[in-house]
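Q: My hope is that you can spare some time for a protein that puzzles me. Underneath my words sits a plain record pairing an amino acid chain with its backbone structure tokens. Those tokens are not coordinates but codes from a learned vocabulary of shapes. Thank you; the sequence and its tokens follow:
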Amino acid sequence: MEQTLPFGDVLDAIDQLSLEEQETLVDIVQRRVTERSRKLLASEIREAQEEFTEGRCQAVTVEELMKEVLA
């Protein structure tokens, strides 16, 4: 079972770390966020490819897309 802590408690705990530990923590969190973002993007790409393959969307030109976005 995953235990969650209130955000303020996490910040207070970080304040208890040394500067070096805080810098290491920042590096670790940045890598984790980057990896999580990559996984999310890969999932969204797979989903878009599936939608295209199944005919639930179609290819459009940049001009057509921008016209739709700006409408």
The chain has three helices and no strands.
